Amino acid sequence: MWRKFEAGEFKSKEEFQKEFVRHVETTLARSMYNCDDVGAYSGTALALRDRLIVAWNHTQQQQTFRDQKRVYYLSLEFLMGRTLDNAMLNCGVKDVVRSGIGELGFRIEDAIDQERDAALGNGGLGRLAACFLDSLATLNFPAWGYGLRYKYGIFKQEIVDGYQVEVPDYWLDFNPWEFPRHDISVDIMFYGGVREKLDENGKRVKVWEGGEIVQAIAFDVPIPGYDTANCNNLRLWSSKAANGEFDFQKFNAGDYDNAMSSQQRAETISAVLYPNDNIDSGKELRLKQQYFWVAASLYDIVRRFKKTHRPWSEFPDQVAIQLNDTHPTLAIPELQRILVDIEKLDWDTAWDIVTRVFSYTNHTVLPEALEKWSVPLLQHLLPRHLQIIYDINLFFLQSVEKKFPKDRELLSAVSIIEESQPQCIRMAYLAIIGSHKVNGVAELHSDLIKTTIFKDFVRVFGPDRFTNVTNGITPRRWLHQCNPKLSDHIAHALGGYDFLKDTSLLKGLEKWADDSAFVDEWMDIKLANKVRLARFIKDTTGIAVNPHALFDIQVKRIHEYKRQQMNIFGVIHRYLSLKKMSPEERKSVVPRVSIFGGKAAPGYWMAKTIIRLITAVGDVVNNDPEIGDLLKVIFIEDYNVSKAELIVPASDISEHISTAGTEASGTSNMKFVINGGLIIGTCDGANIEITREIGEENIFLFGALAESVEELRFAHRYGKTEMDPLLKEVCDSIEAGTFGDASTFSSLLHSVAEGGDYYLVSDDFGSYIKTHALVDEAFVKKDEWARSSIISVANMGFFSADRAILEYAETIWNLEPLPLEALD
Ligand code: 26W
């Protein structure tokens, strides 16, 4: 029998207040008389975490006792955002806390606002991992996340003179949500060499020895489910020098610099998140991070399994490991190494276990994002793993040769080793060969990987190794938490909050789409959310925007394939059109606020130039007295999870306009629609399934289809296209200096010019502009717009991360939930 969450509850507001005051006065050593909002946040967080940890302990005890199969989600990124609000809602204590701290003179919203984001991720992949943790906990699956405890998360973005400037994000000053486990440490080896020796049975065995050792220390983060006593664990590893604080011999000899250096080298491993999204940099430190994290996690998983004294043959019945992209692929040779070199299993038995344990999710088809590691680098850093990878490849190629005799081309196409200068290890190929299932993250994407980048593996393994699990988002954070008014309104219509656990119930909203009181309230809530965002924009940029204007939003990492450049070119087109109009004509124009947000990878010059163009256009347009409220262009600095929670509920229309076939799924598209925003988008990623679910009359689709992209690119390469005339006009105006020194933007203009235009901006521009005109027309028909919004939300049930997790559990992990016994 399920019980409502109790372990995290406060029996009364007085009980909460007592613990709050105790923490403020003792843990924080502050007086209640000068307690500010930061103190109120800290006191609340500490009081809540005491409760969380009881649930966490109870859950872990039960998981150990029941000894069911667990899933381990290995991800280099967990983009958690803030915890307090989410934890209060999941534990059902927000109302008690609100009134409790209210009486003490604090507003709960102000306290919540003091928390820093845990920004241990770049974008979609990291946030997906965070949503999956929420769903795993809510659905009572025995599941652990494993990641790195970066000292610095994704950099903070400042805009200085219109340009992005990166500022380090030291976020650990006060983090009440983690528990250091100094007793749980693992020694991780790098470098060294491999020696052959005879073991006690006279068998030749390989030993890896003589390397440098770094210690991994565990930090645990409790992950409470919604409306359940279940509380899972996220274990993050932090690196530390193995030989204590520093080298005493060197210290005593006066060699202070070198005494510290090994410590510093060790700590560097978990120091900083690589800020690249969808681009492989191939740096040695990144490879060190990957092995450090993978080796510590596997050691931990194996140690837990060995405590049960089961035979190795049962390992795949007890353990499923999901590889979040190729970043943890070294786990495959590492487990093979543990089984063969340490546990002395024979190769084939070990390999059978390995492939039954692992599965791999691919998140991108962009060639520049596919990880490759140079063989000399691997040889140096992980000599034994390189041997194992060679052996995996050898046995694999032998099996291919047997099935497709004399097909040399196929052999070189599927080889893990790329015969380049230097040779490289193709991590995606290793991940496929070492897994029993490979999945893409939306239907189109899963089809594309089977017909393009991994097509040869479909021949080798057959189509069944490949599958699709369309991404999802947690409705707890991305509806209930970020848009409480809308969540309450929906609950009122549906007779309760069950839709937060079963999003198919949202379907019940359809019958309210014609109820004028319901519809009016729906639109009032949207307006209130826009007012809230307008206030934030005024406070942070000084620019006043009209909340009745159409809010057009594109927030995501800045990347050419996501085509923010097309959006800003569209804005320029709008501006030029407005300038040509008479005052009379302007009266019929729908006022717009174009809102952008997102970080560029520090080394991605073109992305930074796109940001510069957006801010330059804003400077001109926002200060043009002729334009006034008809057009405003806003760049929101430092887009992150907590800002997304403010921005997403305030959109009328959001842009998901990647070149067809390039965005694996997208997940913000789902967030915007479930919050009642409409979207303009290409036939790409999950947009296609969103259209299927909500109906094509409720979405603004435009642009080339994935199947024609190759042909269009071909035409560009051979000079068979001319730039779209509307785009040409836009480029000419940039060239003429309308937005400042044109040379600033020359590389960007060049990238879309004839002969190039890899992302097909010119091909799609005409239909993009036409579609925006349709958006304007639709927006003034308020009743129809509201209807589209409501019908869309009603049909978004499919995009819950709960559905995605249930699919993984059933089709990939073979995992059952663990019904918790009630606490005494
Ligand atoms: C090696 C550098 C690197 C770093 C990050 C390569 C690739 C990545 C990620 C896989 C990029 C990423 O976040 N992909 C996004 O994953 C989301 C979750 O599945 C999808 O919704 C997005 O479409 C996809 O771009």
UniProtKB/TrEMBL annotation:
GO terms for biological process: glycogen catabolic process. Its cofactor is pyridoxal 5'-phosphate. It holds the Pfam family Phosphorylase. The keyword Glycosyltransferase applies. GO terms for molecular function: glycogen phosphorylase activity; pyridoxal phosphate binding. Allosteric enzyme that catalyzes the rate-limiting step in glycogen catabolism, the phosphorolytic cleavage of glycogen to produce glucose-1-phosphate, and plays a central role in maintaining cellular and organismal glucose homeostasis. NCBIfam families: P_ylase. Belongs to the glycogen phosphorylase family. This is Alpha-1,4 glucan phosphorylase. It comes from Ascobolus immersus RN42.
